[in-house]
Amino acid sequence: MTEKPTVAILGGGNIGLAIATGLTRHGKLDPKSITVTRRNTAAIDGMREEGYHVTTSNREALDSSTTVLLCVQPSQAIDVLASLKDAFDHDRHRIISVVTGVSCDALSTAAGGAGVVRAMPNTAVAVGESMTCIASRQHDPAAVQAATALFSRVGTTLVIPEELMTQATALCACGIAFFLRAVRAASQGGIEIGFHAEEALAMAAQTARGAASLLLTDGRHPEGEIDRVTTPMGCTISGLNQMEHEGFSSAMIKGIVTSARKAGKLGGASDN
Ligand SMILES: NC(=O)c1ccc[n+]([C@@H]2O[C@H](COP(=O)([O-])OP(=O)(O)OC[C@H]3O[C@@H](n4cnc5c(N)ncnc54)[C@H](OP(=O)(O)O)[C@@H]3O)[C@@H](O)[C@H]2O)c1
User: In this structure, is residue 166 part of a structural domain?
Assistant: First the structure.
């Protein structure tokens, strides 16, 4: 693993806090090496007790950091970088944006020409299990490597063309919600057939983890694994086919395509 970075998280909201939590609990960073900003810091006061630096000043956060993570809403991203453009040290700061739909070029221009790499993590970053896609327009291998090293501390990374970052948002960032809903639905079925709610949720979640592990551990294919558990005239194929008659695969595919279309319209559509 490369030298430990000092990190400024500009925007301590849902994903900013998930990244801070993941980097300290699973990524082996000291909270003291992370500064989190937001305008209303009262909402994250508790982080001070955990050792993080918390401030309303984005400039102050830059002073003590080598890696700058932009974690504000798409409509705020350009203004935040523009307000800091004279504070970026082009040699020292690595700027990584997790903002949906705002391109490297637009972000870099706002940042006074500083290089910007984009990353699209999901909230499983908090438990060290993010799927994070990384892209850079300028194709700056050192910057991509730094972003990859950072997010590899808290999950799996994949470098993709910037043109696919919107699609990565739908599949991975929105995708967390899709799979959570699937687990929740399975648990609801479990309750109906006789389990208490907590048991049913734990059973469904572990079963989902097992299914994912079958694919990720040995590189197996889902349909091969499904064939192994569907005996002729058996209960699994009956249930599975009933789900397909109700549109299970189609619903997931349509949901991902719809999310990708919507994500493409965020941030002023400057994604590509
Ligand atoms: N949530 C996800 O799962 C996820 C995953 C991948 C990427 N993303 C992207 O990450 C970004 C943030 O998403 P989110 O869900 O974390 O949104 P969020 O919860 O609204 O967080 C944004 C944070 O930015 C802070 N902020 C706003 N203006 C600021 C400024 N000038 N300086 C410092 N902080 C400022 C806000 O706090 P104050 O109002 O107190 O300043 C807020 O806490 C979005 O662009 C989204 O597309 C999100």
Answer: no
Quick check: CB of 101 below 6 Å from ligand 1? no
The last residue of a domain, from among 161, 189, 224: 161
pLDDT tens digits, one per residue of 168-211: 999 999 999 999 999 999 999 999 999 999 999 999 999 999 99
Q: Which domain holds residue 52?
A: 7-161
Task: For ligand 1, say whether the CB of 74 is within 6 Å of any of its atoms.
Answer: yes
Give residue 49's pLDDT: 96
Atom of ligand 1 nearest to the CA of 101: 47
The crossing angle, in degrees rounded to 10, of helices 175-192 and 197-218 is: 130
Integer Cα distance of 140 and 30 in angstroms? 28
**Is 92:146 a contact under the CB 8 Å cutoff?**
no
- What is the model's pTM? 0.94
Q: Are residues 148 and 232 in the same domain?
A: no
